[in-house]
Structure formats: C-alpha cells, structure tokens
Amino acid sequence: MYFDLMGPHFVIAARSTVGREWYEALEYHWLALFEVIAYCMKFGWNLQRADEQQRARCLSSGAGALALAGASNVR
C-alpha cells in the first residue's frame, strides 16, 4: 500500500509550502493522521479478505448457496 509512504512526502511538501509558520507539533500530528488512515485502510482490507476467504470456504464445503445467502443477509 502506497498510502503509508504518502504521509512523509505530504509533510515535506506542506512544510516547504507553509514555511515559517510550520512547527514540529504540526508535523507530528500530520504524520499521526496519515498513520491512522493507513491503519484503518489496512484493517478494512484485512476484514474484506477474511470475508472473502470465509465465503470461499463455505462455497467449497458444499453448503455454498445456503451459506452465501445467509452471509449476504448479515450486512
């Protein structure tokens, strides 16, 4: 995922744009924001993958159509 690499590059670009009004705490908070966003995106991706794997297991176990219909009603 490239979003976690985008944070430091954004901070460097913002620091050069803001100039004298930039301070260390602002840099820390921007980096923390990007870390939180990257964590949420990775967590969501892992949840999606787990859901896909569970559906694949249900389909391969023979109770596929019934389990798939039940899983789609949960959302």
Descriptive account of the structure:
It is a single chain. The protein is mostly helical and 75 residues long. The protein has one domain (3-74). Helix content is 85%, strand content 0%. It is built from 3 helices and no strands. The chain has helices at residues 3-18, 24-60, 64-74.
Low-pLDDT stretches are none
User: If you compute it from the alpha carbons, what radius of gyration comes out, rounded to the nearest whole angstrom?
Assistant: 21 Å
Structure class: mainly alpha
Strand proportion? under 5%
User: How many domain regions?
Assistant: 1
**Approximate shape:** rod-shaped
Number of DSSP strands?
Answer: 0
The CA-CA distance between the termini, in Å, is 27 Å
Residue-averaged pLDDT, rounded?
A: 76
Fraction of residues in helix: over 70%
Number of helices: 3
Summarize the structure.
The protein is an all-alpha fold. Helices cover 85% and strands 0% of the residues.
Helices, strands, pairings?
Elements lengths: L2 H16 L5 H37 L3 H11 L1
Task: Label this structure with key terms.
mainly alpha, 75 residues
